[in-house]
């Protein structure tokens, strides 16, 4: 068992790996092309002549598909594989922009800007969901995944695991300061002001019911078909059968919810979040 982004979970299954999502950790964290305003980047087409970092194979596929959508060819930019070191690569001047998360790489760069005497709002993002007209950031939702043979042979263990996840989630969302303090005692390398800020920026994305959202899965599956990652007859590899509680109702207007979250995250970046006593967006 482990955790993985939705798009990678789908791609893994499409390549024959027997994996299935049994729940959700983070719902739709904003993901996109992260850059500094001083780079001269203003929109996707201004990536011409730039070095664009990506984590792995599917990040490259996304960049190339977006480039084609905006009338660009792969020769118009230089794609650079940097793994999870997008923020560091931007700091070192190795890339001009790169695919990252609002609650991780953007936080890293904002804190670096403060340390180097730059305004933190120098850090910008072109959100992939908006560029690709997806209507959600769910392709990068972080999931709990498991090996299918394990699930078939030990379903009771998967259910017990998810019950534990739900109890932990309820504790974190109800008592975030206490929960984060306990976690830092266990994971001492997370005891830093940078990690505090990442936790605050991640808090709003925590899935409250830990469930797979069928609507999101359908959107991302169709996106993967558009990218050529999966075959047209691919069926989403997820299940909520290991949850022993009712799912929360789906949001009526996901795009409106994302606008609320975007405004909330800007406020957290400026004034602090749950550790500073701010109320998270619902």
Can you give a write-up of this model?
This protein has 282 residues and is of the alpha/beta class. It folds into 2 domains: 2-28 and 138-271, D-Maltodextrin-Binding Protein, domain 2, CATH 3.40.190.10; 31-132, 3-Layer(aba) Sandwich (D-Maltodextrin-Binding Protein, domain 2), CATH 3.40.190.10. 44% of the residues lie in helices and 15% in strands. The protein contains 11 helices and 8 strands. The protein has helices spanning 6-14, 57-69, 86-91, 105-115, 128-131, 148-153, 155-174, 176-186, 193-203, 214-227, 254-271; strands spanning 2-5, 19-26, 31-36, 51-54, 78-81, 97-101, 123-127, 142-147. The strands form 2 sheets. A 5-stranded mixed beta sheet has the order 5-4-6-3-7. Strands 1-8-2 form a 3-stranded antiparallel beta sheet. Helix 1 (6-14) crosses helix 10 and helix 7 (155-174) packs across helix 8 (176-186). The protein starts with a strand and ends in an 11-residue tail after the last helix.
Strand order of the largest sheet: 5-4-6-3-7
Q: Assembly type of the shown chains?
A: single chain
**Looking at the structure, what is the overall shape?**
globular
Helix percentage: 40-55%
Short summary:
It comes from Malassezia globosa (strain ATCC MYA-4612 / CBS 7966) (Dandruff-associated fungus). With 282 residues, this protein is α/β, with parallel strands linked by helices.
Topology:
Layout: E1 2-5, H1 6-14, E2 19-26, E3 31-36, E4 51-54, H2 57-69, E5 78-81, H3 86-91, E6 97-101, H4 105-115, E7 123-127, H5 128-131, E8 142-147, H6 148-153, H7 155-174, H8 176-186, H9 193-203, H10 214-227, H11 254-271
Parallel strand pairs: 4-5, 4-6
Antiparallel strand pairs: 1-8, 2-8, 3-6, 3-7
Keywords: Iron, Metal-binding, Pyridoxal phosphate, Thiamine biosynthesis, Transferase
Organism: Malassezia globosa (strain ATCC MYA-4612 / CBS 7966) (Dandruff-associated fungus)
Subunit structure: Homodimer.
């Amino acid at each position: 068992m482990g955790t993985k982004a939705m798009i990678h979970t789908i791609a893994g299954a499409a390549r024959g790996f027997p994996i299935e999502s049994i729940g959700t950790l983070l719902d739709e964290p904003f993901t996109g092309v992260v850059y500094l305003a001083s780079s001269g980047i203003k929109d996707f087409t201004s990536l011409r002549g730039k070095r664009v970092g990506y984590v792995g194979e599917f990040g490259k596929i996304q960049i190339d598909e977006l480039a084609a959508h905006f009338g660009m060819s792969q020769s118009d930019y230089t794609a650079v594989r940097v793994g999870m070191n997008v923020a560091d690569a931007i700091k070192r001047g190795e890339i001009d922009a790169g695919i990252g998360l609002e609650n991780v790489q953007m936080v890293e760069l904002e804190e670096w800007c403060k340390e180097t005497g730059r305004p933190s709002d120098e850090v910008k993002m072109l959100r992939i969901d908006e560029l690709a007209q997806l209507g959600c950031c769910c392709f990068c939702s972080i999931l709990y995944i498991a090996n299918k043979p394990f699930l078939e042979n030990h379903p009771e263990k998967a259910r017990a695991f998810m019950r534990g996840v739900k109890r932990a989630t309820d504790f974190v969302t109800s008592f975030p300061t206490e929960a984060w303090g306990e976690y830092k005692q266990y994971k001492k390398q997370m005891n830093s002001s940078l990690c505090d800020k990442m936790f605050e920026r991640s808090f709003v994305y925590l899935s409250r019911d830990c469930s797979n959202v069928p609507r999101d899965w359908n959107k991302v599956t169709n996106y993967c078909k558009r990218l050529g990652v999966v075959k047209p007859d691919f069926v989403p590899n997820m299940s909520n059968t290991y949850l022993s509680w009712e799912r929360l109702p789906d949001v009526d207007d996901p795009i409106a919810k994302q606008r609320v979250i975007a405004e909330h995250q800007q406020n957290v970046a400026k004034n602090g979040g749950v550790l500073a006593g701010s109320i998270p967006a619902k």
